[in-house]
User: Fold Phosphoribosyl-AMP cyclohydrolase from Renibacterium salmoninarum.
Amino acid sequence: MPAQISSEDQQLSTKIAERLKRDEAGLVAAVVQQFDSKEVLMLGWMDDEALRRTLRSGRVTFFSRSRQEYWRKGDTSGHIQMVKAVALDCDGDALLISVDQHGPACHTGTRSCFDGRALPAFVEPVFVEPVA
Amino acid sequence: MPAQISSEDQQLSTKIAERLKRDEAGLVAAVVQQFDSKEVLMLGWMDDEALRRTLRSGRVTFFSRSRQEYWRKGDTSGHIQMVKAVALDCDGDALLISVDQHGPACHTGTRSCFDGRALPAFVEPVFVEPVA
Assistant:
């Protein structure tokens, strides 16, 4: 007699699936943050199955919009992301994935996908006390 | 003679616009992070004009997917986001907006839109040394 496999192992639980507000492609945005330094490493996309794999396996899996396929981060590069925690935002269209990132998160070799990519911006004037 | 207004004041600069990889609705994801605590506060959406306003004004402006209109964060609630820095990721489909958030970021009253909204997840087993 084969071992029973619960439907929860095969599909994202209904309770979570009901809270997702997917875009027209069936995806939600997934913000990936290093758990200790709090650095934002990258943003990827997940459908129900990518989220299920991420929650069940301890490794982050995305759905690639350009390649239209699942990719488990690090399978090619070795730069894996071990899941520390996952949260879904108030309106269900964004996930925050807390991870331990091994090596650089970015395919260009930088630690985060935002490193060295600042845009020119006007920021709030800061009041500076004259040095006495 | 009226003051000259450069095209840069009216439109997002071509240099930045060329780097954006917009979705089918013309939007990129914008991750908002508190500049000092590094907490991820929320995720919003920006088109070219919302990004231009954010870069030029020092206040974060999003484009609402549900209401199909611009909203400058805090205009209704008072919970404004002052821009500290903006970066665009390696493939141009995500922005990281570093801000000083006044009050809660979430419309539900929590500091971040992810607070108290964790999903059950399997995480990497952690090796614990027995206490001697």
